[in-house]
Amino acid sequence: MPPRERILAAAADLFYRHGIRAVGVEAVAEAAGTNKMTLYRHFNSKDELVAEYLKKLAAGSNSLWDELETANPSNPKAQLRGWLNLMGEHLASNKGRGCALANASVELPEKNHPARPVIEQFKQSQRKRLAALCKAAGLSQPDMLADELFLLLEGARVSMQSIGHEGPACRFVRMGEALIGAQNDH
After folding, report:
1. pLDDT computed for residue 93 by the predictor
2. Which residues make Cβ contacts (< 8 Å) with residue 10, sequence separation at least 6?
3. What is the phi-psi region of residue 164: left when phi exceeds 0, alpha when psi lies from -120 to 50, beta otherwise?
4. Could you list the mean pLDDT of each consecutive 10-residue stretch along the chain, which spans 186 residues?
5. 8-state DSSP, 184
6. What residues contact 167, with CB distance under 8 A and at least 6 apart?
7. Which residues does 183 contact at the CB level (< 8 Å), separation at least 6?
8. Alpha-carbon distance values, 30 to 11, 38, 42, 43, 152 (Å)
């Protein structure tokens, strides 16, 4: 694996497990089997490394939407339920710290941090994709439903971290199905 990819992989692991602020560039370089000079050759700063790490996560997460469409072509309601079930599975199987981008948002409140646009664009994109899917499914209040599902997922991720898998997060799919069921088709 090229040094840049090793550095990004090490950063992803360390930043997610320990937090962005808690991990220094020396620890990332050591975990990547390289040194700080090599790290700084590929990334001008730790902030740039953080932004690249989050961009890579966001790109990987965006492929989910294509997979849902491929699995359920021409059936937006099945895609929406597929999203709900995939997120439920992710919540149930995640032994980690929830959404890396949400965690980064909390850790990096400075609006001028290079990671902020990555986080904000990703979250806005996810919400817009949900709204488009709800609209394509012919539901009566697609924007409201998208907001409800988006907030439900964000809350479930945080709840899982603070209360655990047996808390409200374990009811994510059931609550999401109730929200979808409450919508009238056009």
Report:
1. 81
2. 28, 29, 31, 32
3. left
4. 96 96 97 97 97 94 89 94 93 79 92 95 94 94 96 92 84 95 78
5. P
6. 159, 160
7. 134, 139, 140, 141, 145
8. 10, 11, 15, 15, 38
In whole angstroms, what is the distance from residue 154 CA to residue 148 CA?
10
Phi, psi of 110 (to 5 degrees): -65, 120
Q: Which one, of 14, 47, 25, lies nearest residue 118 by Cα?
A: 47
**To which residue do tokens 């941090």 refer?**
113
Place of tokens 């360390």: 14
Distance between CA 177 and CA 173 in Å, rounded? 6
pLDDT value of position 184: 73
